[in-house]
Amino acid sequence: xxxQLQFDEIKSQIQQHLVKSGKYDIINKQLKLQLYExxxxxxxxxxxxxxxxxxDGDQSMNFDVLFASVKPKAEEMVPTQVKEDIIQxxxxxxxxxxx
Amino acid sequence: xxxxxxxxxxxxxxxxxxLDDMLVNIIRQQMIVAMxxxxxxxxxxxxxxxxxFLIEDSGSPNKDIFGHDKQKLKTSDISKYFPCDxxxxxxxxxxLSQHMSKCLERKRR
Lengths: 99, 109
Hints:
Chain A is mainly alpha-helical. Helix content of chain A is 86%, strand content 0%. Chain A folds into two domains: 1-37 and 79-99, no CATH class; 39-77, no CATH class. By secondary structure, chain B is mainly α. In chain B, 57% of the residues lie in helices and 6% in strands. Chain B has helices at 3-6, 11-45, 70-79, 96-108, and strands at 81-83, 90-92. Chain B has a two-stranded antiparallel ribbon. The radius of gyration of chain B is 29 Å and the shape is elongated. The termini of chain B are far apart. Chain B: Its main location: nucleus.
């Protein structure tokens, strides 16, 4: 359990550094751009619409239900190339700051 | 990969974890957008219990708002012919209005 805590702490410090430097914002925007260009946003919108229409018969629209249902599929739909690219960018940043 | 290796603070693991967080936030934002669009639509059309309608995604650049293929529309325009009421000739649908304005002008003279 302490390994997890250690990991979380290191990750948190790095994230703070990323945000402060403005790099987090830049990488986040690049991620969104790549997702948009790959058509991921369109696919996820369609998926969400279908889920919402499916829900409508049984219950009123519920964010938690929608999110829980769509999240795993949406994560799966992210192109491997995009994931790799962003991971490489983050690793490059880590290389830079952690000397 | 064992559990121990997965939580080891390697560059890859940290980068991967940060990416996951970014994606979760993006997905969350998209769900909020989708829900508010749905809600706005339902507010417009009223409560249609049992109503069966599909929101056509206008994301495809090749389709117009009725879901017709734009390319096919162009060719269907050209393949249909209509007789001109003035001169009786068969004119292609796309050129009909142009022809009518010239034809009526000619007749008037």
